[in-house]
């Protein structure tokens, strides 16, 4: 597929067919993430690949439980807000239960160039925090890897959806992976996930994008 056709074809897909994805295709997709660019070639990512329905259901259970905990507490202050948050989880997160594959992406902090030097020079906390958390280069690395996953999946004929909608359950997701794998990825934390599968039949609409002149300024 031509590159610009590929990026135009990519959509966030939330409904999938039940057919499983062959392991070789999953590995091709992840290899695309592996070669993504990262600052100082840090490669500060790790991927847990869930292609077992029971484990995906377990994932959804811990997310739903955390959502219910927050929604119930929120409803004490604002009943409508609590109901909205519960509905948000159902519509924009729990659909992954129908995906054949869910990739959980863990990341590692990356303090950008100049941080330690500024700290040694006695820079104010506000300046250091701005450099560490505003440009957030560690998350830029993760973003590059995730986009590679989405484009590789599209090129192979699969749909995908990149989610950060369950980040409030990050600690619970991290604990679930420790429980299921026996592996503790020390210093790594849950950042986002990607659902994958063959798109269900029917129309999958994408929201409108801003015009180029709304997001661009040529500085001559």
Automatic annotation (TrEMBL):
Keywords: Flavoprotein, FMN, Oxidoreductase. Residues 7-197 form the Nitroreductase domain. One of its GO terms (molecular function) is oxidoreductase activity. Transmembrane segments: none annotated. Its cofactor is FMN. Belongs to the nitroreductase family. This is Nitroreductase. It comes from Faecalicatena contorta.
């Amino acid at each position: 597929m031509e590159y610009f056709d590929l990026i135009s074809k990519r959509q966030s897909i939330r409904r999938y067919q039940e057919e499983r994805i062959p392991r070789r295709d999953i590995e091709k997709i992840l290899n695309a993430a592996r070669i993504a660019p990262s600052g100082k070639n840090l490669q500060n990512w790790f991927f847990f690949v869930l292609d077992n329905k029971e484990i995906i259901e377990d994932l959804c259970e811990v997310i739903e439980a955390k959502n219910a905990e927050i929604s119930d507490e929120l409803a004490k202050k604002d009943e409508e807000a609590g109901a909205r948050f519960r509905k948000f989880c159902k519509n924009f997160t729990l659909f992954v239960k129908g995906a054949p594959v869910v990739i959980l992406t863990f990341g590692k902090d990356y303090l950008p160039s100049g941080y330690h030097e500024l700290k040694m020079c006695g820079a104010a906390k506000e300046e250091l925090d701005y450099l560490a958390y505003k440009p957030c280069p560690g998350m830029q690395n993760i973003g590059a890897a995730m986009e590679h996953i989405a484009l590789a999946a599209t090129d192979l004929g699969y749909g995908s959806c990149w989610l950060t909608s369950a980040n409030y359950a990050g600690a619970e997701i991290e604990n679930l992976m420790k429980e299921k794998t026996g592996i503790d990825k020390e210093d790594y934390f849950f950042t986002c996930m990607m659902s994958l599968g063959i798109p269900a039949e029917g129309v999958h609409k994408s929201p409108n994008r801003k015009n180029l002149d709304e997001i661009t300024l040529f500085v001559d």
